Amino acid sequence: xxxxxxxxxxxxxxxxxxxxxxxxxxxxxxxxxxxxxxxxxxxxxxxxxxxxxxxxxxxxxxxxxxxxxxxxxxxxxxxxxxxxxxxxxxxxxxxxxxxxxxxxxxxxxxxxxxxxxxxxxxxxxxxxxxxxxxxxxxxxxxxxxxxxxxxxxxxxxxxxxxxxxxxxxxxxxxxxxxxxxxxxxxxxxxxxxxxxxxxxxxxxxxxxxxxxxxxxxxxxxxxxxxxxxxxxxxxxxxxxxxxxxxxxxxxxxxxxxxxxxxxxxxxxxxxxxxxxxxxxxxxxxxxxxxxxxxxxxxxxxxxxxxxxxxxxxxxxxxxxxxxxxxxxxxxxxxxxxxxxxxxxxxxxxxxxxxxxxxxxxxxxxxxxxxxxxxxxxxxxxxxxxxxxxxxxxxxxxxxxxxxxxxxxxxxxxxxxxxxxxxxxxxxxxxxxxxxxxxxxxxxxxxxxxxxxxxxxxxxxxxxxxxxxxxxxxxxxxxxxxxxxxxxxxxxxx
Length: 493
Ligand code: SIN
Description:
Blueprint: E1 15-17, E2 20-22, E3 29-34, E4 39-45, H1 49-66, H2 71-87, H3 89-100, H4 104-124, E5 131-133, E6 141-148, E7 151-155, H5 163-175, E8 178-182, H6 188-201, E9 208-210, H7 215-227, E10 231-237, H8 240-249, E11 256-260, E12 265-269, H9 275-287, E13 297-303, H10 304-319, H11 339-354, E14 358-361, E15 380-383, H12 390-393, E16 400-406, H13 409-417, E17 421-422, E18 424-428, H14 432-441, E19 446-449, E20 464-465, E21 468-469, H15 474-479, E22 482-489
Parallel strand pairs: 7-8, 7-10, 8-9, 10-11, 12-13, 12-18, 13-16, 15-16, 18-19
Antiparallel strand pairs: 1-2, 3-4, 5-6, 6-22, 11-21, 14-15, 17-20
Helix pairs in contact: 1-7, 2-4, 2-5, 2-6, 3-4, 3-6, 4-5, 9-10
């Protein structure tokens, strides 16, 4: 199976600033590698401060006109963007799989997932109504109007190169904001392709600008945006330390922030659960994208009575997963994004085993004829895991399912909440009273009950505690890009 792109316009290999697709101002370049082989297969600009400043200049100038474009017209442009993304699902899926490593079926699935957010926000654009407020005194009319915040900066991660940028840019455009964005250094190509399609859909020059940059130069770009008071909002998906840095550094310009940060999701299976459904839910939630997902279960708690049966079923399913490059049509788990990612997975598994955990599936790197590259790790199940192990304390971000046995509901709720993070939590139970007790008690922005696939464009996605704040998707996702202006007219009697 080939991952060759049929339509070469989807690989512009350049920044878009205003109407110009261009190299970095100083000509520096960034190599894009295939995680299946670590070989370089594309080159994009390695942008710096001058490019970042230029992007804000044009985005700021474009805001004056874009904010006045009627919502219906903005909606039509965003809808055309959605249609073009869907029409290019094959090529975009290949691009995602090539630069990120996920199997092609997942790459194409991600394109449709990204499109679902674009379509959703095209529709929401026309519903950003304000309110008429009942005046407390005679002779007044009072209104709450919604306005776009201005220029927004979007910084996106490598794990979902299409979906994460789509669910930031689409609401921004729909709300009437203009955009400067920087995709992750590992996966810039999909973002460039999406921006190309947005341009074709009729997004006017200057409204959507993108610069690519290496890990080494990313801070140079982002610092310009942090310091510039014309950038009124920053939206970021990535690690908690970086999110906290952005919050601190944006204080001087008091930017609005959306931070979708790390998670450490619990997945709890009670004695009264449907075990087969719980195993399937865990497979979907844990092994999607090779476990490289912020909402992946990172700590799996199984109640005494069903522990052994659950582990047996889980180990059988996990051992049967096909690990292969995205070019292999049977692939279910691809390579990890890079060597650092595999090193971290290995460190977590070794740490757990050295402290008494047992491996019941996987537990090692893979190097074989089918997977000759350096970045493969076998899908893994660990048992006898405890709260002190590294895999319980921080996101592994890989295909490792660490299982811990528990006895009581009170004990598992306390353990599940004993983390600074609060992005997603899952549990399986058929006891209706327990279901609502747990839904209330779990400290997370998202709760999946008897369901492992929780993300959807109509749902508010985001965390609490160290997992950040702000919501993406849903009607709440549009509000993140708008502020309220209160207008009061007096002397009316
Ligand atoms: C993420 O990993 O941050 C996003 C996952 C999703 O959209 O389900």
